[in-house]
Amino acid sequence: MRIHRVHTRQALEPGLELVLEEGPAHYLNRVLRVVQGQAIVLFNGDGHEYAAEVRRAGRRELVATVHSRLPGLAESALEITVVQALSRGERMDQTLQKCTELGVAAFQPLLTERSGVRLTGDKLDRRLAHWQGVVIAACEQCGRARVPPVRAPLSIAEWLGQAARGSRFVLDPDALMGLAGADLTGSVELAIGPEGGFSAGELSGMGKFGVQGVKLGPRILRTETAAPAAVAILQCLKGDLAT
Q: What are 130-140's pLDDT values in tens digits?
């Protein structure tokens, strides 16, 4: 029988008995139909996995007992932050899901001239919660024990004004250098444009702050395709698949 793996926001340690939150409890109870005594794996993003057992499975709650702490899946040696221009609906979800599966360390949504998406107040809070849920679900599926954060959206100027988390690159189909020729260090920030791409002014402004333009090849990819394709290349060059 397959051992199901679910995320909880609660602290975990061997010997603990806990009542799971409504979301994971509903998933285990109503979707996966777990039963009392069934083995499960819990994780909360601290880098470990926790072998657990279903103590009680009711209609409205699930109680589990944690038995042991296990080492989690190792993270990539290349820490990648995807700086993704906001895209609509499923496009953004697809970027978050696939890049999480490919080992991205963090996501920085970006407000751009051509994004066409504006989020404020409660709508922004709901969207951030949704995006983080997409990332958590991807971690449950792919086996990651650390959950990449999805940060609050920034304007390009705000992002450039922050201290860089390593080398900064932007995908630009007119760049002279390919991604394979980039000087990669232990941490990389990779900016991906919206549908229609970054404007000439935005690319110029990034260049003034030392963001290097790189291209993937002769074809222009959709915004939801570009980030996973670039991350896969980075992982082959310096990350998970480099050795």
A: 999 999 999 99
Token pair of 141 as six digits = 């599926």
Are 97 and 180 found together in one domain?
yes
> Do 63 and 18 touch, CB atoms closer than 8 A?
yes
Is the predicted pLDDT of residue 96 greater than 70, yes or no?
yes
Do 58 and 83 lie in a common domain?
no
Q: Which residue from 162, 168, 160, 161 is spatially nearest to 185, judged by alpha carbons?
A: 168
**Residue 243 in domain:** no
pTM of the model: 0.93
Q: Are 40 and 54 in contact (CB under 8 A)?
A: yes
Using CA atoms, how far apart are residues 187 and 164, in angstroms rounded to an integer? Answer: 9
Q: How many residues does the chain have?
A: 243
Rounded to whole angstroms, the Cα distance separating 126 from 129 reads: 5
Nearest residue to 159 (alpha-carbon basis) of 117, 125, 206, 95? 206
Q: Are 131 and 106 in contact (CB under 8 A)?
A: no
In the chain, the amino acid numbered 205 is: G
Within a domain: 37: yes
Residues 117 and 217 both lie in one domain? yes
pLDDT band, residue 38 (cuts 50/70/90)? very high
Q: How far is CA 227 from CA 95, 100, 204, in A?
A: 7, 11, 21
